[in-house]
Write a structure and sequence with these properties.
- 48% of the residues lie in helices and 21% in strands.
- α5 links the parallel β4 and β5.
- The longest helix has 26 residues.
- S-adenosylmethionine binds next to α1 and α3.
């Protein structure tokens, strides 16, 4: 999978999320032991946004982070929720409509080629998306381009804990248990083999921070949550 050409990998990722979309929220809850909502809320709090902020949520999927942002900002703010997989976006759009959150725009686009003008967002977020992108430095350059000066980026991603014994327990869960539960619940044999593989191939925390600095972000820092099973990277466009 990782040896495949970029275009093939990109198409695979889009098609795979399209197949998983109807059961994605159920699986997120089960596989994260319901921690995923808490992680997203932490990200939103870390950004300390003003109520009239304009925020871009990249790789929004079924929109849980976009919805959390929209709820926190209220009607004075605006959230643009972007994903390249229409079935995932459709789920998010429908969820936001049911909750009466009308200040969210759902945008079908590639995170690596944003169809957006420069300098227009106060913040950009991405939860569990970066791992899937074929060119992470390019993603940070695009995010930097569309943020206003002073705008912040926050990236939440699954990571391997740095220390034993949490690391051993994590590997046991991610490599042995998670693919079995995922296969059973998603009816997509490959999707939950892809997940642990993508975590194993994810760059270490310092390398992600370096990509951000190379894209022009300052005050780059990262914080592990829940023993390092996820990590949040934050940066500011000067
Ligand atoms: C694991 S899901 C995360 C969804 C959501 N952010 C969450 O917190 O649950 C990853 C999402 O990234 C999207 N994605 C992957 N590569 C993308 C790209 N190049 N451009 C836009 N979206 C992309 C997929 O379609 C999928 O919806």
């Amino acid at each position: 999978m990782w040896a495949r050409q970029d275009a093939v990998r990109r198409a695979y990722v889009r098609e795979m999320f399209g197949r998983v979309a109807p059961r994605y929220d159920l699986l997120n809850g089960v596989l994260s032991l319901q921690l995923h909502h808490y992680w997203r809320r932490r990200v939103v709090r870390m950004l300390r946004l003003a109520p009239d902020s304009r925020v871009l949520d990249l790789c929004t999927g079924t929109g849980d982070l976009a919805i959390e942002l929209a709820r926190m900002l209220g009607p004075a703010g605006e959230v643009v929720a972007l994903d390249f997989c229409e079935p995932m976006l459709r789920m998010g759009r429908e969820k936001a409509r049911r909750r009466g959150l009308n200040h969210t725009v759902w945008l079908h686009a590639d995170a690596l080629q944003l169809p957006l003008a420069p300098d227009q967002f106060d913040a950009a977020t991405m939860a569990f998306g970066l791992r899937n992108l074929i060119d992470k430095p390019a993603a940070f350059r695009e995010i930097h381009r569309v943020l206003k000066p002073g705008g912040k980026v926050a990236v939440l991603e699954l990571t391997r804990p740095q220390r034993a014994p949490m690391r051993w327990l994590y590997d046991l869960y991610a490599l042995q248990i998670l693919p079995r539960i995922g296969k059973r619940l998603s009816h997509a044999d490959d999707a939950y083999l892809y997940l642990p593989m993508s975590i194993q191939h994810y760059e270490d925390r310092a390398t992600i921070a370096e990509y951000m600095q190379q894209a022009g972000f300052t005050q780059v820092c990262y914080r592990d949550l829940t023993f390092g099973v996820v990590c949040v990277h934050i940066g500011v466009k000067p």
